[in-house]
Amino acid sequence: MARSISNFSRKMKARRTTILILMNVVLFFAVSANDAAGQKRFSRTYPATKNVRLQLLNRSGTIEVQGWDRQEISISAYLEAPAANVVPQSLSGTIVMDLVKENQGRNVGNVNFQIRVPRASVVDIETRIGNLSVTNINGGLVRAIITTEGDITLTNISAIAVDAQNGIGDIFFDGELRTGGQYRFTSMKGSINLRIPFESSFKLVATAPSTRNIDLGPFRGTNMRFFSDGRRVAGQAGEGASTLTVTNQRGAISFIRR
Amino acid sequence: MTCDDCQLNISLYLDNELAADAAASVDAHLSLCPECAKIYEDFAVILDSCKLDLPAEPLPPNSQALWCRINNIIESETVAAPKAEEKPRGWLSRGFSFSQVASAVVGIALISSLLTIVGVKNYFEPSGEDYTSRSPATQTTFEKVLSKVGLIETPQQARVKRFKEQEAAIDYWNKRVQARRVQWDTRMRDAFDRNLNEIDQAVTEYTMILEKDPQDDLSGEMLDSALNEKMNLLRAFSEL
Fold it and tell me: Model ipTM?
């Protein structure tokens, strides 16, 4: 009798476990299906001219731009609900997307971009909120602006001019400073890390007024001087062939050897 | 024939270019209508005066001789009249009183001084943007003298003026943002508020430093930069 009761309870337990597993599977697929239905994908490819320029103003979301060896621009965007209007325009070699203007007054979800452009492109990207990342670009300009929060990551950049600005978030630059180039990095709060070759030639003005945390790294001991109680460093490395301006209102600045 | 028909044909009638019966009709009408007859007379007088062979412009009998005579008269008068010796006359003897002369001298001095000051001011005063970033250390001695006299703005005064302009712009954009922020989602509103708060903290920090030490130019520069950041943030979000 006791044996049959024990068998019965075992069977009941097994059945309960099976039901639970089945419920989990159903729930998982339901959530996945909901996600898939809530996100749209947008994809376009454009032939690139010699002097190609990408100009993108996003409202909210990440932008990843990567240089490649093809003479074409590939744009993929993942649109969270409610979906934003994305209308790229190709104007004589310039691809323009202005999601702020196209979605003015609308409450839209994140739009996350993955873009491939020729390496020699001019890249001008901006978002109100979200991370920006640019890789493998050696054109005339890399401009990456975040109005509020987000990190900016610029990797393997050899552009003539670089302008990176954000509110709250980190900025990381890994690249070369070209002769006659102008490089500007500005943050309100976060860390600015610059990874450049030791033999770089530049004139520097670096200001961190609140933290006074300016680490010159490999350029310590070169022709650099601290001013205003350590709030600013100015000087020259090498011949001073380019201009480097770094301002971090409430954060730190660091130089790293590349 | 009506008066209108007659008046239309008067000119042709005078020139004898009308057909016989038409001319007879005009003739008959003119004999009956005093108004048209008057017009006919006027036309006739004009026509007669045009036909008169007027003489050319009357010329003196011998114009060359007349001109020679006039020329001779002028030359003889110039030689005959000896030059009266002019005595050197002073300002006062020319009819100016001493007070008039003195006031003229003072006036000239004032005008030239003002012109010099304006010229110097224009020459030495850099653009507003440059001036806010300048410090007493970078001022020339001449600029320092002029700013002490009150003829040009000191860097601090220029900075204060610029801050007021920036604050006015911030007020404008802030009103637009307040009208729009109800449309933003919570994430957007929170991010905006966090960033604005961060900038405001920086502004407060630099303002306090500048109150203690108005000569701290780096804080002045950073305050300028922070206010610009605030303005840009508000402007960007007012477009959402």
Answer: 0.80
